[in-house]
Amino acid sequence: MSNVMDTFTAYLEKHVLPIANKLSTQRHLHAIRDSFISLVPITLFGGIATILSSCPTVDENSNAFLLAWSDFVAANSTLLTWANTMTLGALSVYICIGVTYFLCKHYKIDAFIPVVLSTAGFLLICFGPVELGFDAKTANILYLDGKGLLCAIFIAILTVESYHAMREHNVGRISLPPSVPASLSEAFASLVPGIIILAVDTAIFQVFNLMGTILPAFIYTNLAPVFDATDSLGFAIIATALVQFFWFFGVHDAALSGVLGPIRDGGLSLNAAAAAAGQELPNIFTTPFWVYFVVIGGCGSVLALAILLLRSKSKQLRTIGRVGIVPAFFNISEPIIFGVPLMMNPMFFIPFLLTSTVNAIIAYLCMLTGIVAKTFALLSWNMPSIFGAYLSTFDWKAVVLVVALIAIDALIYYPFYKAYEKQLVEQEEADEATEAEAAVETA
Fold this sequence. Notes:
The protein has 443 residues and is an all-alpha fold. The protein contains 20 helices and no strands.
């Protein structure tokens, strides 16, 4: 078993891990990942607004708290809906700005003008004009939410790459005397590149306008089967298994967040909008689904293992359990992963991949069949799953599901943990015997 694992590991290190490492450092995926991570205040505020507006059904027998909550929602429904619409409901705008900023940071260029250009390009391409202003229906501002993410990312990348290339080659640069202030000189240097970029954006808009649509509508309509596929049980299984697989071999899950982030957060944005409108939630594979139901305790679903370690016969494992239980409760898995260790440890390869994947399957089926409500809010990545599961669904059965999943994870880890514990206990006893003999000889 050990020889087979060593051969397999060597193959991965030579052929697979270099690809994963390139993905983790690829500038566009890196910018997308950092953008989603940096928008936590936006998603948190939008999640709070959505939760506040999602009061459970009340009647004359309800308690005073629920009645007061219901009255608050009735009096402030427009405000709460607007708060959600301008945060999670406008996620594509903020992602466009974020990707532009982090790409500029990569190229070490001032981000202000590219951010303005990409935002203007997004508005040009993603809005349909009317004669005297913008009407919500004809302007298609609904594509500001998760449905416009692909378009936002495309515009941000196109803007920065074009701007950077033209500035590098001094396209249209206007020579000014040294006496001109640096800020004015920079503005003139960006004049021609900016006009060219906005002209291209306008041309893109016109192409789709002649087709009777706009770019995000065209993308969302024609790629609907692809979007449906990313919200399927099969995709959830593959995505979960891949993340755990790469983590086991030392590639952090952030390496794939540039790809999975838009899918998970896009689904959350659509669900939040549907919850605010009182409609059926369309997606299962969302960020809170991932955080609270799939990777319980962090990657590898290590909360269950941390609980087992607390009663371990091995001093080493028991100490790691005491150190790692609190971080795991808040979805931070590194103390357990590096302390046991789980990473690159053949004994834990199967449970490390299996626990989170089983969680994804069970949770997905529970939400697909309506046993547990779907998620519509994300309070924090580090909120314990038991609390996050309820607050993201407002369904008490979600809490029961999380507890059941932790128990299942413990059952999966248990035989592998006991086998590893036996090895460590024997080693510890041998070390103690050696130390005792050395002490006797010294005496």
